Amino acid sequence: MVEQQPSPSISGFLDATAEVRRPLPDFAKDRATLVEMYAAMVLTRAFDTKAIALQRTGRLGTYASSLGQEAIGVGVASAMRPEDVFLPSFREHGAQLVRGVTLDELLLYWGGDERGNDFKGPRQDFPVCIPVASQFPHAAGVALAMKQKGEPGVAVAVAGDGATSKGDFYEAMNIVGAWQLPAVFVINNNQWAISVRRKDQTAAETLAQKAVAAGLPGEQVDGNDVIAVREAVGRALDRARAGEGGALIECLSYRLGDHTTADDASRYREEEEVSPRWKEEPVARLRKYLTDAHSWSKTDEEELLRSCREDVETAAERYLATGPEAARAMFDTLFAEMPADLAAPAEGLENG
Amino acid sequence: MAELTMIEAIRAALFRALEEDPDIVIFGEDVGIDGGVFRATDGLIQRFGAARVRDTPLSETVIAGVAVGAAAHGLRPVAEIQFMGFIYSAIDQLVNHAARLRNRTRGRLGCPMVLRAPFGGGVKAPEHHSESMEAMLAHIPGLRVVIPSSPTRAYGLLLAAIRDPDPVVFLEPKRLYRSVSEAVEDNGKALPLDRAFVLREGGDVTLVTWGAMVQESREAADLLADEGIFAEMIDLGTLKPYDRATVRDSVRKTGRCVIVHEAPLTAGFGAEIAADLAEHCLTSLLAPVRRVAGYDTVMPYPRLERHYMPSTARVVNAVRSVMEFT
Ligand SMILES: Cc1ncc(C[n+]2csc(CCOP(=O)(O)OP(=O)(O)O)c2C)c(N)n1
Ligand SMILES: [Mg+2]
């Protein structure tokens, strides 16, 4: 079976062996910037590892790991500005962390507590969107509000390859085009939608080409090259900010793990397919480049791993020590003001 | 004070809302230069411009979904679904997002949007244009469902819906758009949401209804009064959450209740009211609660439509039967 390989025409800067293929964009010449992105990817991976361990021991709900796709979330979010609004799928913890969502909030959310969506950092960012692709129309709406109010922001939504089969995705791209809204749609093409392969999802040669129908620019980038993701998203954001409308960016990557902790990928894919993909994964790639070009040392690496693990461990401890809200919380923020209809049941709960 | 039809009253409320709050935007299919297929937005684009009165591409998912996103980010969208028969692809957005955004973010992001849609039968409209599916929407926690039954209440309730910080579906009985007019003061005063309107007081039987069926219920009440049966008539106005107290108080007084709705019987909103009365007013009831409703059939095409729509005679007969119950 021939799998889609990131072809040379797909924009990337670092290839799978961390060789520089094209002149790097300015931000990628700065060691500190690269280290920051690298650290965010390492933190994301450490978080995924811990979250899976917590789920396996009954202390977290069903969890969707981003293993192998860390460059997408981190690349997207590091291209964004604070005034932009992020609308994530359920696999973009990396982006959420870069945006300022805390490890504690992520754990609360995946642990089944709505307080995890009450971000103290990016107050305008949307919570994770579970109904696939339904966040794209919201991004168009946020972009409309920004345009209408003369705000400089851009709405950025991310979803998977499977999401591009949904009407919401096309319909939202269409209005972004028709109204020239500042919205950028990013696809994390990890080649799988649970057990359905990318090639069975659509006969379209690329997902990026779906933008053509909406009159938007669409492009494929190597989603395992965080520099490429950040550069492409950055360009799209600049255009959108300049009033030139939205864009679609397809990031080619691979889902190295199960779909979620409730899934067993061995039911539908062979290990032989997965193992070569480990050679392309984004964290090792950037580490190699940092080592080769920026004297990233073994000590640097160990120190980073230690601090990421420590952050995750202490966040997990705080999460595990956090009790649930009072039961009546399910009533309290349903409406801005509680209707009379709900007052009695809310009271009843309190009185047992 | 001007005599306004319901559609004119709706337009007056939209006009005033756009004037008083710069964050209000109106969008939907053909709401711009065409003024909406029923003319609810007639002239608004000329006065407020194409940025605030927007023709959308033809997509109900996007109309509702863009409203959610825009509302969460500081606008107050008043969006139109051209006919309720096309609202279904927007329901995903209503159930999964509009109705729960405030709750799931623990109050961080709100969703102050109104989704207007004409609904109901009686105007010989084409297929898919005449159904009354309000109960489907009323089942959604976190969503308000408001239905006006006169020009005055359309004006006041629409203003209330627009000013409310939470999502409201505003269903407009299109049979009433032009069939009645009354003096409506365009004074910017909203009517209360979540409160029923007692349109007529009476001691013998409570008629609970909403929307266009207020017409048949009123005619029935007039005929019954000639027979010496005095009906108290309640227009719910807001279906979700509805004013249970007003309905219960009335039934405790009259001991009898007939619920009238155009929507199909089974799992219609009347079932909720009947259940509430059974739970809370059993000892006051002198007769079983009766429902006069549409049938559990697909809405017929215009030729058979009038046989589907609950008639004044059916309401009168239902009331007589509860009066005769011993
Ligand atoms: C509308 C909708 N249908 C079905 C599901 C169940 N579901 C959750 S994730 C998923 C696959 C999504 O695949 P993709 O869009 O490629 O994203 P990925 O999970 O690979 O990141 C499905 C079918 C859902 N959440 N939403
Ligand atoms: Mg996928």
Automatic annotation (TrEMBL), chain A:
Keyword match Oxidoreductase: yes
Primary enzyme class: oxidoreductase
Reactions catalysed according to its record: N(6)-[(R)-lipoyl]-L-lysyl-[protein] + pyruvate + H(+) = N(6)-[(R)-S(8)-acetyldihydrolipoyl]-L-lysyl-[protein] + CO2
Gene Ontology molecular function: pyruvate dehydrogenase (acetyl-transferring) activity
Sorted UniProt keywords: Oxidoreductase, Pyruvate, Thiamine pyrophosphate
Assembly with partners or alone: Heterodimer of an alpha and a beta chain.
Protein name stated in the entry: Pyruvate dehydrogenase E1 component subunit alpha
Organism: Marimonas arenosa
Automatic annotation (TrEMBL), chain B:
Record GO terms (molecular function): oxidoreductase activity
CDD domains hit by this protein: TPP_PYR_E1-PDHc-beta_like
InterPro entries according to UniProt: THDP-binding (IPR029061), Transketo_C/PFOR_II (IPR009014), Transketolase-like_Pyr-bd (IPR005475), Transketolase_C (IPR033248)
Protein keywords: Oxidoreductase, Thiamine pyrophosphate
Cofactor(s), names only, from the UniProt record: thiamine diphosphate
Domain Transketolase-like pyrimidine-binding: 4-179
Gene3D superfamilies: 3.40.50.920, 3.40.50.970
Protein name per Swiss-Prot or TrEMBL: Alpha-ketoacid dehydrogenase subunit beta
